[in-house]
Amino acid sequence: TVVLTAYNDELSIAEAVDDFSKHPKVERVIVVSNNSSDKTYEVAEAAGAIVFNEESQGYGACVHRSLSEAVKFDDSSLVLLCEGDCTFRSYDIDKFLSYIHHADIVNGTRIVEQLQDNYTQLSVFMHYGNFFVGKLLEMKYLGDVTLSDVGTTYKMCRKSVLEELLPTLDPKVNLEFNPYFLDKAILQGYEVMECPITFHPRVGVSKGGNINNTVALKLGLNMIVGIITNWKNVTKS
Fold first, then answer.
1. Taking a C-beta distance cutoff of 8 angstroms, is the pair 205, 25 a contact?
2. What does the pLDDT read at residue 56?
3. How many CB atoms lie within 10 A of CB 230?
4. Facing residues of 79 across strands?
5. What single string gives the DSSP state of each residue in the chain?
6. Nearest C-alpha neighbor of 89 from the set 4, 28, 6, 10
7. If pLDDT is split at 50, 70 and 90, which confidence band does 75 have?
8. What CA–CA distance (Å, rounded) separates 96 from 193?
9. What does pTM read for this prediction?
């Protein structure tokens, strides 16, 4: 089961749904729109996705709702979380499938220059800042995990793991939700691995932590505080 988060992604969501729907291993595509003010919901539905609207505004709330809807389907043992902005592609599913045999959660990493397209929203500052935060979280669990990218949405999870993990997560953690998710998973003893993925220019404009370097710096600092304080001092939405 593939689930795509979306916020005002009218221009890209149909292409994203079509791309993932055509992969032979995909049973269904779900789209969770986070109160989009454009036609994201309608376009996704017309493209063949199962569509929900998450009324609680915020990235964490949207991701939590996305994973919660995906685990309801008993015919899928794996859940693939991604975004609806066309920054990621379905052909990387084959990579995830080769890694999931060794892990409970496979997190995509964009920190491979040869796999990054030109003109993505990930600046050099964001690239190395994200790498630094990944290594900080790695040091927290030194010897248990290797991390180089904690900011990417694209990941594959075992459904059985999500069913146990989701009730322990706070959806009010906003743009810091990805490292928060990984931190909580590792803390609870789940095996987390990274998989190199391709990264493409998004369709439309970024609404998250990649708007500019100033926003990315603030987000990165919040992530650092969260990791160090076990997420007790992170401002929630």
1. no
2. 97
3. 13
4. 157
5. -EEEEESS-TTTHHHHHHHHHTSTT---EEEEESS-SSSHHHHHHHTT-EEEE--S-SHHHHHHHHHHHHTT-TT-SEEEEEESSSSS-GGGHHHHHHHGGG-SEEEEE---GGGBPTT-S--HHHHHHHHHHHHHHHHHTTTT---S--S---EEEEHHHHHHHGGG--TT--TTHHHHHHHHHHHTT--EEEEE--B-PPSS---STTS-HHHHHHHHHHHHHHHHTTTSS----
6. 4
7. very high
8. 10
9. 0.91
pLDDT digits (tens, 9 = 90+) for 10-51: 999 999 999 999 999 999 999 999 999 999 999 999 999 999
Per-residue model confidence as pLDDT tens digits over 182-220: 999 999 999 999 999 999 988 866 555 556 778 888 988
Structure tokens at 160: 């059985």
Nearest to 96 by CA among 86, 83, 82: 82
Structure tokens at 9: 């992604």
* Count of beta carbons in the 10 Å neighbourhood of residue 97: 15
